[in-house]
Amino acid sequence: MNEQGTAARIVAVAERILRDEGADAVSMRRVGQAVGVTAMAIYRHYPSREALLRAVADRGARALAERWLRYAPSGGLEERMSAALDGFLDFALGDPHLYRFLILDAWVGARRFPEDFRDGQGPPFSVVTALVEEGMRSGFLRADDPLEVAMAVTASVQGLVQQYLSGRIGMDEADFRALCHRSTWRVVNGLRSKTEA
Hints:
Order of helices and strands: HHHHHHHHH
């Protein structure tokens, strides 16, 4: 296996461990054993555990953004917004360890709002921001700061997901998803332009 292939395999294995057990389970030794290299060999590709976890985060964020873009590449704005929410819920509920790591955990190099979310630096967030910008251009949403509006729209559902994953919301998944849709649309409807409202 060439060096580039080894680096990609290391990230893939680290991501699998994180998805299965959480970020705390990712160690250089454990990843090395699973890949078939020494822990020291990993340091040739990733100078620290934090650098490896950042590579996992970048890979996971890109995959999530690509998944969201596939959900509803066409259709009306409202349909695409709902599809993006469904994609987010599929990710958060189907991959809770990776979700917690990407969205909730504090780790070295984690993206920070707003400076790291401009110009597409946060791939999944960029999908939401693009929908918000389109909504503002079309007059569906009133003009405002797109990043802050995207944060307002996503923060409520992130809070609900956090409560759900911690067992603090007593609903089955279908009812919980419906709650997330209602809550998100309450926020979006509050942001609509007066001509659309």
